Amino acid sequence: MSLNKNKGIKKIRKRLDSLDNKLLNIIKQRTKLVQMILSNKTSKKQIIDRTRIKIILKNIKKKSIAKKIDTKLTNTIWSNMIKAYIDFEYRKFKKK
User: Fold this and answer.
1) 94 and 47, same structural domain?
2) Could you please report the per-residue DSSP string of 16-30?
């Protein structure tokens, strides 16, 4: 790989690192909101809301199309994020 291409990659990676830091801040905010919702749940049965999940994924698909983002990519990201938060809620619910 040429020196110029390597410098270009490093520059882009710095931008990615900066964006990752912003994403971490957003995840922190989202986690706080999920914890607020969890504090209002009285049963583990309330953790998974399949109707809500379908609505979220449908809306993400619409927004992805409008923003010209690969819908398979955004569906995978959101599906995995939802699964991760479901796991988080189960782990935290036990500690209530």
Assistant:
1) yes
2) HHHHHHHHHHHHHHH
State both tokens at 48: 């998974």
pLDDT surpasses 80 at 21: yes
Dump pLDDT digits (tens) for 53-63.
999 999 999 99
Task: Please choose, from the candidates 93, 84, 91, the residue with its C-alpha nearest in 3D space to the C-alpha of residue 27.
Answer: 84
Q: Is 35 in the same domain as 49?
A: no
Domain that holds residue 67: 43-96
| φ, ψ dihedrals at 4, nearest 5° | -65, -40
Domain match, 47 and 15 both: no
The rounded distance, in Å, linking the Cα atoms of 77 and 72 is 9
Q: How far apart are CA 71 and CA 30, in angstroms?
A: 22
